[in-house]
Amino acid sequence: xxxxxxxxxxxxxxxxxxxxxxxxxxxxxxxxxxxxxxxxxxxxxxxxxxxxxxxxxxxxxxxxxxxxxxxxxxxxxxxxxxxxxxxxxxxxxxxxxxxxxxxxxxxxxxxxxxxxxxxxxxxxxxxxxxxxxxxx
Length: 136
Prior knowledge:
By secondary structure, the chain is mostly beta strands. It is 0% helix and 56% strand. The chain has one domain (5-134). It contains no helices and 12 strands.
């Protein structure tokens, strides 16, 4: 069964990430795709015209030059952890070199599924953002 997706460009600042689940990033050239569940659109986002709901889909960043996450991994069961590991950074890539001058910084946080961790900061530097919304 194929899931249909609706792309919505821009509107990054109209999304609330904190309670969202962020999947493992997928890289193809200068494109970074991150599965997301539990994303909440805020006032100003095109999805707010519909019944308010949490959305799932893909965070797609195009023209990526860097992607860095600060993780705090759970010790034991993430639903009832016995503690946390030390903060650490992960860098995705490599991404192709770019001379683009229209690079924007996208900053968000949420629960990382792989590895199970709180993502305190995820900073993606890219030219463009598109939310691919799961139509289910």
